[in-house]
Write a structure and sequence with these properties.
Three copies of one chain form a homotrimer.
Chain A: H1 6-30, H2 34-38, E1 41-48, E2 56-57, H3 59-76, E3 78-91, E4 97-109, E5 114-129, E6 132-142
Parallel strand pairs in A: 1-6
Antiparallel strand pairs in A: 1-2, 3-4, 4-5, 5-6
Chain lengths: 146, 146, 146
């Protein structure tokens, strides 16, 4: 077992932290907890996703985006789930963390069927605030768009 | 790297254990290993899922449920896979572990297509028996149900 | 917290390493980085997947397979994503690692829809080369095939 060096144990701690961070963050989103979700981003976070006409910067814009989507889903009688995984994690010398991962968004019609809605690649830069991770920049691309 | 405290290493160990537990548990289910699967629950576990008319308590009911589903799938020429992820893990002071996670169930027609069957949220309480994790209560909700 | 023994911390390090390995390996595949992807296998790796008429042995065959698929996807205007998870990890006394896991392959038509393409079970044997993990044998089965 000499192959598992102490640094690997530390990388493993980071890897688990990253996974726990995303699990909690995405569950907040799917629960429409807009403010709590926004607090998982830095104050001035940059958020660039294909569903928004232009990148958002800062939490008020994030909160507004969640509220809009929540209202649209309620009207359509649908639920969305953001299922992330495949986290490719690289720590920078300054402690920032690059994470490239996949997200499948599922859509369920209440009283109907569940299906794949979107397949996305998510490229984040995470930083720390009092030890906790926060997203400072997020760039999402969709597989169905050129 | 001072941001990764010893407690985080311990939380990371728990996080990995939880993931390994679910991977093994769900593979046992999909392999129709009813008895081995039931042993990943406590003797008096409570199991509340939308596919059952009422909550099951205890292993005999769990085993019966797996056997029923296995027979139905065989008759229909289908395979199911339970793909869990997004584990939001919280340890209680007494050592019990709350886990809220997502499960996608895929259905494949043998000789046909694979598709999303169900998208579920799974809320478990895990406890320890000789160090190993066991489910003491499970509550599953389906995104397509009101 | 006495339930988390030192060995579990070491198992957790392995578990994180395995997850990071697969995240990176599959992202290389989906990026069509054929050579870099092939280097995540041992020189004489055995690769047995249903999409190939017979098992491949060694990196040149792996590289050729990726290039073929890449060309087919480009012609069809599609993207594939390999989303792995549910890693059931067992370390052998000699340090080799058995991993049984699930892979969902998503297909997206560029300008169209995203959907489940395949649901697979992946059985790997991983070995170490200078500390890094490599696949020495891979056997993939598809849920839609008998």
């Amino acid at each position: 077992m000499t192959t598992i060096a102490p640094t690997t144990t530390q990388q493993a701690a980071l890897y688990a932290q990253v996974q726990q961070f995303y699990a909690h963050q995405m569950q907040l989103l799917d629960l429409a907890e807009a403010e709590l979700w926004a607090e998982t981003f830095t104050e001035d976070a940059s958020f660039d996703v294909p569903t928004l006409p232009e990148p958002v910067r800062g939490r008020p814009g994030l909160i507004a985006a969640v509220r809009r989507t929540t209202a649209q889903l309620a009207e359509a009688g649908q639920r969305h789930r953001h299922f992330m995984g495949m986290f490719d994690v690289t720590e920078r010398p300054d402690g920032a963390v690059d994470v490239r991962s996949y997200t499948t968004v599922y859509a369920s019609q209440i009283g109907g069927e569940s299906k794949v809605h979107r397949v996305c690649v998510c490229e984040d830069v995470l930083v720390r605030s009092d030890g906790a991770l926060q997203v400072s920049t997020r760039k999402v691309t969709r597989d169905d768009l050129a």
